[in-house]
Amino acid sequence: MDVSGSVSAPLPAQQTGLDGKSREGMIAESLEANQEVQGLYPQVDFKQEVIEPTINLTFDIQEHVDEANQRRYNTLIAEMLERTSEPDLAERLLWEARECLANYPGVLAQFDAIFIGQRSASNVIRELHECMMIKRGAERKMSQQVDADLHGNGQ
User: Fold this and answer.
1) Sign of CA dihedral 74, 75, 76, 81
2) Does residue 16 belong to any structural domain of this protein?
3) What pTM was estimated for this model as a whole?
4) Which domain holds residue 57?
5) Is residue 8 in a domain?
6) What total number of domains does the chain contain?
7) Which of 115, 110, 93, 104 is nearest to 66 (CA)?
């Protein structure tokens, strides 16, 4: 509340979070970074079905979840994304991350809608693994292109 007594809280889309970026900025950045994945799955609206809910979850965790659970959640999710090639371990990490949100029903509901929804956790891990492999392939291809450009196309 400012001196005049009016509330001047930012709108959710204007709130800044990670690295001082707004929700809208992070959504735009994620859309750009995931163009290749979107191209492979044209039937999926990645912005509405994946990116916006994930960014909103990220901001809401930052806003509502205590710091210790935020750190643990972020560590577990990062490790889960790194270990999708080990489905049993990745699924265990996903469930452990979910436990960090147990005291925050609104945030937990968002997590469930994103990661569980209408499918099993093992299917989520498989889908994440496929997406991670596509992203890594795209990053590798871009890196090779940059190397070729820097070295005069292999000359």
Assistant:
1) positive
2) no
3) 0.70
4) 22-148
5) no
6) 1
7) 104
